Amino acid sequence: MPGIDKLPIEETLEDSPQTRSLLGVFEEDATAISNYMNQLYQAMHRIYDAQNELSAATHLTSKLLKEYEKQRFPLGGDDEVMSSTLQQFSKVIDELSSCHAVLSTQLADAMMFPITQFKERDLKEILTLKEVFQIASNDHDAAIHRYSRLSKKRENDKAKYEVTEDVYTSRKKQHQTMMHYFCSLNTLQYKKKIALLEPLLGYMQAQISFFKMGSENLNEQLEEFLTNIGTSVQNVRREMDSDVETMQQTIEDLEIASDPLYVPDPDPMKFPVNRNLTRKAGYLNARNKTGLVSSTWDRQFYFTQGGNLMSQARGDVAGGLAMDIDNCSVMAVDCEDRRYCFQITSFDGKKSSILQAESKKDHEEWICTINNISKQIYLSENPESFFLKKKETAARVNQSALEAVTPSPSFQQRHESLRPVGQSRPSTARTSSSGSLGSESTNLAALSLDSLVAPDTPIQFDIISPVCEDQPGQGKASGQGGRRTNPFGESGRGTRSETEDSILHQLFIVRFLGSMEVKSDDNPDVVYETMRQILAARAIHNIFRMTESHLLVTCDCLKLIDPQTQVTRLTFPLPSVVLYATHQENKRLFGFVLRTSGGRSESHLSSVCYIFESNNEGEKICDSVGLAKQIALHAELDRRASEKQKEIERVKEKQQKELSKQKQIEKDLEEQSRLIAASSRPNQASSEGQFVVLSSSQSEESDLGEEGKKRESEA
């Protein structure tokens, strides 16, 4: 290292201005060292705090993994393989936590202690000596001032002695303080290098020790364990994919004929009422009186069990007795201007209940079923056996579909064991007629799709997020490519589009239902037809999961943003959105048609219709999209007007330049003509040769020559 600058201690008694100036330099250096070391101390303290936090978090993770087997999960709580695997992970992470704790201790001893000592001891010592030296210097100056004021005429031995003693004491104190202060400043030049290098050396040694401990813990047995776990995860993923594919195929087989069953009030001609039922279940609205003239209606699930009418609220594990319907009476009634109401009165007339069915078919079937139970027909097997033989084929094909689309399938499974063993559930008229209606509705849908939707068009039920592969039609519509990421913790890096300059920013919560390619994009009926087809396909394939996203409407594009990661899933350029509409009855449903290049055929433009569900904001979203397109249209018109104005200004500027250039050319020609005319005339110079005198005839000839030259240049 280069030599160390020092203050001359020998010159402290002289206390010359040069010494004081050099002292100021050293004091300024000490102040700079103090500021820099404070910043370095804060940075190293952050490292130490982060290491402590990492050690505590690792220990907490190990503790939670150990407590997994003590958790009481409703499903899969007795998985011994998972418990043992997590126990093994907890041991490994606990060892890593111990290594981190050792690293924290080493950082405290080898890194934080030296820099803290330098900051708290050495730098404070410099500040203290500086204050003491300043006081001693002031006292010495005051003593010298008093000594200088001693009178020469009136000498007082006592006063002279006191002042002399004061000068002696203050000068000695200043000299001693100054020497110690100079010594501390000189020593500081060495200490600052030690204070800089020693913490860094301790930090590196602690890290090397930590890495050595980690390499000792990560042995071949642990690597084999991690390899086995990775293989197990891949096997579980393959098993999950196979199971999902099997379930999807089962769902498709079960829900082929389910599309007509979604109509709340079906046509009685297509769905005849089954009057032979002795068992029925479904949702009904029950009237509850809250006052003399006021009442409320509560929707609950009702089902018959033997001679009892049972009710069950949504979320309850089991149902309760609503009414004994043996020997009861039931009839249709008019109540509070509501449709499909009927009243049940117990056999003793002390209890009655008014219920409302969802459709006319359910209304009549409930009345017939309760009448049959009231007559105790359910105790005889003849009506049910006859009905089952008559509807054997339809029940075998469509009963599973009815159970799959019922509002609470788990309820039927819970109470299947409560029903009598000898009684099998009869099929309904809705089931018996579903085959013919399904074929008829399929033909009508085929005709409608043939005119509005491209034939053999697949339906996309999920959106392409940045963690998915590119799929045809989606990548081009979104304007961004997808990429695969590691499903075990790698975070996707979403790219933010430049929408901060947009005037309009409106955010809506939407759920993606599906998308498909369409033939037409100039008629709102294509959106309605696509909604119907996607909802029907979701019901047929039993797809009830919907991806929730945030729809951001700007003047440039529509964006689907992941609500958790804020990553842009899809981007729809606003000029490509050519049609948008809400459902005519269900205002939560809305859709838009996106015109893209390529698609199924690269030679022409293709149109894809996207359907979403919102929280009663379908019309607001469409209005927002319309407003965005209007703003974009006005912006485009303003841009074109601005470009046109700029083009006009450029033309004017070009014309002005051409005119200036022409004037310059004329001026140059005129000047050349004058020079030529002047050189062709005889010169009449004075005796000194300084002036040329032209006669009047020569001036006229020059003027005529210039006019001729101008005419020639103009020609």
Automatic annotation (TrEMBL):
* A GO term for molecular function: protein kinase B binding
Q: How does it sit in the membrane?
A: Peripheral membrane protein
Annotated PID domain residues: 508-644
Compositional bias annotation for Polar residues:
403-412, 680-699
Q: Its GO biological process terms?
A: cellular response to growth factor stimulus; insulin receptor signaling pathway; positive regulation of biosynthetic process; positive regulation of transport
Q: Which GO terms describe its cellular component?
A: early endosome membrane; nucleus; phagocytic vesicle; ruffle
Q: Where is the composition biased (Low complexity)?
A: 424-440
Q: Specify residue ranges for compositional bias: Basic and acidic residues.
A: 652-673, 706-715
* Residue stretches making up the PH domain: 277-375
Keywords noted in UniProt: Cell cycle, Cell projection, Coiled coil, Cytoplasm, Cytoplasmic vesicle, Endosome, Membrane, Nucleus, Phosphoprotein
* Alphabetized PANTHER family for the sequence: ADAPTOR PROTEIN, PHOSPHOTYROSINE INTERACTION, PH DOMAIN AND LEUCINE ZIPPER-CONTAINING 2 (PTHR46415), DCC-INTERACTING PROTEIN 13-ALPHA (PTHR46415:SF3)
Can you say what this protein is called? DCC-interacting protein 13-alpha
Q: Which organism is it from?
A: Myotis myotis (Greater mouse-eared bat)
